[in-house]
Amino acid sequence: MVQKTLINNVLEMKFSKTKKAAIVIVGIFAFAISFYSFKPDDKNFQIAKNLDIYYTLFRELNLFYVDDVDPTKLVKTSVDKMLESLDPYTNFIPEDDVEDFRFMTTGEYAGIGALISKQNGKILIAEPYEGFPAQKSGLKAGDILLEVAGKSTEKLSTEDVSALLKGPANKAVVVKVQRYGQKKPMDIEIMREKIQIDPVPYYGMLDKETGYIRLSNFTEYCTERVKMALIELKEKQGAKTLVLDLRSNPGGLLIEAVRIANLFIPKGQEIVSTRGKVKQWDKVYTATENPIDTIMPIAVLVNRGSASASEIVAGAIQDLDRGMIIGTRTFGKGLVQTTRDLSYNAKLKITTAKYYIPSGRCIQALDYAHRNEDGSVGIVPDSLITKFKTKKGRVVFDGGGVAPDLAVEDETLSNVATNLVTGSLIFDFATYYNSKTEKIAAPEEFEISPEIYVDFIQFVKGKDFKYESKTESELDKLLEVAKREKYYDISKDEFEKLKLKLGHNLDQDMEHFKKEISELLGDEIVSRYYYQKGAIKAALRGDSDVNKALEILHKPDGYAAIFDAGRIIKSN
Fold it and tell me: Is the four-CA dihedral 90, 94, 95, 99 of positive or negative sign?
């Protein structure tokens, strides 16, 4: 009887275009009714009670709220807010977003193969991927997308434009673009293809003995790409040592992390284990294949952006004393997600377990289960951090990501360089330079000459570039406080002298920070001619992490000393 009443109430709702939402809600609350046989303090009763409250609230909103409501949007908002209280990785994926989710795990989609961005209200090509339709059709970085498939992009978001560019493979899409230095827009027809983003954007030799592999994500089948690169570097190019670059790699599929670690770790060795609420799902992952190499000295590069699957690989290599870790402390994501199917082709990506690397430690840095009074998430306190030991007896710690064996100071950009990047001045100059320069030297040889740098300074000045240093910003706050507390008039001359002294000067800053600005400029220009591979290759020349790795790898005694028993690896 109760169930029938609920259904009748739902039928009263004004759901013309949202019939699906009504049916879903009926299903939920019909299910909830079955729990009413439980005691009031029973958890299932609490679930049923609160679902019933939610249903009646939803019904009243729909019937009586002054404006029309969108049930799908309301439910999505409420679900997102609910999941937000748990952790950032437990997410609701509606049917419309499933394709994007699939791309995140596989790296595969059908489209033109280009990265787009929005600058100054305009959608433009940020990077065409080498060898894919956008690049083969002649699209260039900096091209402004005016129309896609006959639809103006003026009021569209990057997500909207991306959706228009994607579509069935082997079906053409026409884009209207405005290119720098050309008066008239042009139409370009691009044949969509199945796009598989390469998880190894670059590999090669750093010197005669040291190979290098950059792994950007842990998508499906990425192990095959790393394996191929490793074999080629060893057998064809003579690599005797290896640098594996996992910097800014956000992670991905756990099984791919296990398989990549297995390339360097003996068969049968435990790499990672997962433990959660459902004990039947707990699992120990071991190396199941014969490795490619268990002896070659390895340096794994990490930074704050290395997370999840990256930390499994780096952590396993560290715990098993298979290689050294160089860089800065990793992100600290020790949580495992599982995808569960929901009604109407929706999905729930839910955190189901924590993972533990061979020493027994979990590297999860943030405690989502116990929040502060204001709702913020706290870092795992020192009192709860536990000491563990690697295979050879080195001391490592849990609760804070993977600390490097050799810490390299995290390089931060100057304020002027940061503003040049965020203000798209470096990107725009590269577009300008590419429009008037047919070709440049090889990535490893190209340098920003004094003439190019002077040209860049004039370009920046012509754009009326304005910025404020952090020092100036803080000084302005100080002056406001001083005026409010009536101290300003007492020391007005001193305050004004200090303001003048600490004020930025563009010419001065451009000269003082010439080296880092030139590096950023060079990498961006190289990418216009040699794409992502070239940009990575160019950036390696002045890379402090890579240089530190080469320094140690070239000293057998120094490399061996990294693994001395009793050595303490502290978070930096």
Answer: negative
